[in-house]
Known about the structure:
This protein is of the alpha+beta class. It has one domain (15-73). It has 1 helix and 4 strands. The protein has one helix at 22-43; strands at residues 9-11, 16-18, 54-57, 63-66. The strands form 2 sheets. A two-stranded antiparallel sheet has the order 1-2. 13% of the residues are buried. The site of zinc ion has 9 residues, from strand 2.
Amino acid sequence: MKNKSVDHIHCTACHLRGFLDKHDADKALGRAQAKRDRLAAKRGTGRGIRRESRYFRCSQGLFHLTATPRKDVSQ
Ligand SMILES: [Zn+2]
């Protein structure tokens, strides 16, 4: 059984899409970035477009995508 979409569950603590493991988060990150890049190409600029660059593990043990650089994470 092959499922093309990345499985995710809703994280009730963060109100974000959460991924159960790094592998899924990594796949989702790649897809999100490809989507942003297509949007940037269409607009002719990448300015003002949020671009997820990494994922982090939250208190619920789920992985979330974020555009925030690691050094700026304070919450
Ligand atoms: Zn979370």
